[in-house]
């Protein structure tokens, strides 16, 4: 297909994320990708500063991951999971149980992050129904979060970012505490505790993204706060869900963000980097108490079963990606990227309109005091050979862990240039 036709058909036929139909801006056409580079249709290359939305931690066309997919392709791409099972899924479950905090011990596989959150919520609501307390059906969270785009995840996403005004009367109404501050604040905990105490009889679970709030605003908070949430949840007979879909697999500097607090949630969601960014997959883990609670109910089954549940190709590449991560010195890579981001993004403080510059693990954020002019910021980055995708007032990067120092310097100077142009 010639490039002009492709772009025109894309514009008129294909919906893109958070976009209008027909599209008002033309996306770049990617022909292939390898290592940390995206190769565009015009032959130029861009260093990927986004890891394809947190996912491609090992970069593209990694020989080990390619081989894992090819090997599995030679056996079977997919079989249903009802009544059947296979080694890739069982191995993956064992690995996830091994590497996540104890006692998360049971795994529900699904096909995306949003569905993993749906399943987490269903588990918690059903747990209380099974125990004869159906009035515990609401969720508590804090503002500034993001948990996916299907309706229940959207209901616990930040009310503004999740466009709750548009869905008034449709979205279930959840309980929101203010967004957590960056530094630990005992008075914040006290007000969170008050709100929970007031509503505990109707709250099934607290759901948060631990340590980093991603697509809701790229904000960081003190890990100690998670210990308070754990204690408050226990005190008030409420379950605790950690959504580690963005933070999982090393991104924040620990394998899971929960590790930084030494806290185990009752339910935990993973996705995004789970398959190294190769294929869509999510998983929801829970502790035995949740599973056995559900089993004691009048309806002792978890009524959920996606068609592509535990897809063998996804499972195989997830196994390969996790093995690759654990065999590598990922912690040093994340530290190296972290210090490269800190030094490379520091000049952004001098850019007019920049209100904050922050780095945590392999995540770098430049926040403006105004909405980003996305086309201008994108153009400035692309001119420097870098792919960035800003949103709202944020220009941010979370590079693949294999990004070397030269490419990292290109990324940070592109972020600064984008902030200048935006
Ligand atoms: C991306 C994301 C989701 C949704 O995952 P999808 O695979 O896009 O459905 C949920 N929670 C968090 C924290 C995320 O970053």
What features would you describe in this structure?
This protein is of the alpha/beta class and 422 residues long. The protein contains 14 helices and 16 strands. It has helices at 3-13, 51-54, 63-73, 87-99, 113-130, 151-156, 186-199, 224-235, 258-261, 288-295, 312-327, 330-345, 374-383, 405-421, and strands at 30-34, 37-40, 45-48, 106-110, 138-142, 175-177, 203-208, 212-213, 219-220, 239-243, 267-270, 282-286, 354-360, 363-368, 386-387, 394-397. The strands form four sheets. It has a seven-stranded mixed beta sheet, with helices on both faces. β13 and β14 form a beta hairpin. α3 packs antiparallel against α11, α4 packs parallel to α11 and α12 (330-345) runs parallel beside α14. Bound molecules: pyridoxal-5'-phosphate (PLP). Pyridoxal-5'-phosphate binds at residues 112-114, 117, 146-148, 209, 214-215, 243, 245-246, 271-272.
Supply the number of helical segments. Answer: 14
Mean pLDDT: 97
Q: Name the structural class.
A: alpha/beta
Please state the overall shape, judged from the principal axes of the Cα atoms: globular
Q: Topology as H/E string? A: HEEEHHHEHEHEHEEEHEHEEHHHEEHEEH
What's the alpha carbon Rg, rounded to whole Å?
Answer: 21 Å
Report strand %: 15-25%
What is the end-to-end distance? 34 Å
The count of DSSP E runs of length 2 or more, i.e. the number of strands, is 16
Order of neighbouring strands in the sheet with most strands:
4-12-11-10-7-5-6
Heterogens: pyridoxal-5'-phosphate
Poorly predicted ranges (pLDDT <50, ≥5 residues)?
Answer: none
Quaternary state of this entry equals single chain
The main β sheet shows up as: 7 strands, mixed
**Can you give the helix content as a percent range?**
25-40%
């Amino acid at each position: 297909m010639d490039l002009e036709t492709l772009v025109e058909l894309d514009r008129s036929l294909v919906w893109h994320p958070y976009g209008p139909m027909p599209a008002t801006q033309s996306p770049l056409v990617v022909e292939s990708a390898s290592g940390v580079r995206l190769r565009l249709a015009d032959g130029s290359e861009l260093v990927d500063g986004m890891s394809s939305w947190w996912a491609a931690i090992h970069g593209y066309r990694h020989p080990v991951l390619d081989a894992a997919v090819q090997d599995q392709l030679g056996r079977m791409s997919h079989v249903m999971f009802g009544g059947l099972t296979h080694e890739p899924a069982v191995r993956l479950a064992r690995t996830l149980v091994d590497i996540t905090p104890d006692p998360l011990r049971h795994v529900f596989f699904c096909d995306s992050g949003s569905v993993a959150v749906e399943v987490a919520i269903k588990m918690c609501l059903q747990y209380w129904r099974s125990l004869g307390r159906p009035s515990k059906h609401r969720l508590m969270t804090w503002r500034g979060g993001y948990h996916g785009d299907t309706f229940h995840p959207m209901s616990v996403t930040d009310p503004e970012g999740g466009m709750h005004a548009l869905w008034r009367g449709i979205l279930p109404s959840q309980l929101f505490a203010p967004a957590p501050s960056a530094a630990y604040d005992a008075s914040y905990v006290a007000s969170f505790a008050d709100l929970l105490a007031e509503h505990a009889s109707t709250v099934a679970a607290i759901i948060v993204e631990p340590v980093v709030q991603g697509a809701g605003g790229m904000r960081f908070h003190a890990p100690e706060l998670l210990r308070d949430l754990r204690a408050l949840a226990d005190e008030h007979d409420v379950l605790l869900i950690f959504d580690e879909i963005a933070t999982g697999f090393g991104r924040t500097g620990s394998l899971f963000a929960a590790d930084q607090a030494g806290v185990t949630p009752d339910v935990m969601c993973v996705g995004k980097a789970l398959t190294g960014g190769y294929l869509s997959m999510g998983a929801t883990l829970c502790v035995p108490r949740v599973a056995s609670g559900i089993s004691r109910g009048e309806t002792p089954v978890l009524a959920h079963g996606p068609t592509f549940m535990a897809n063998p190709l996804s499972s195989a590449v997830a196994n390969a990606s996790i093995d690759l991560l654990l065999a590598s010195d990922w912690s040093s890579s994340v530290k190296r990227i972290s210090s490269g981001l800190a030094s490379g993004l520091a000049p952004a403080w001098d850019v007019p309109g920049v209100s904050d510059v922050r780095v945590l693990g392999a995540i770098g954020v430049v926040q403006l005091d105004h909405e980003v002019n996305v086309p201008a910021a994108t153009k400035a980055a692309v001119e420097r050979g870098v792919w960035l995708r800003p949103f709202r007032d944020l220009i941010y990067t979370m590079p693949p862990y294999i990004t070397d120092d030269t490419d990292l310097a290109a990324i940070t100077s592109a972020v600064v240039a984008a902030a200048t142009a935006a």
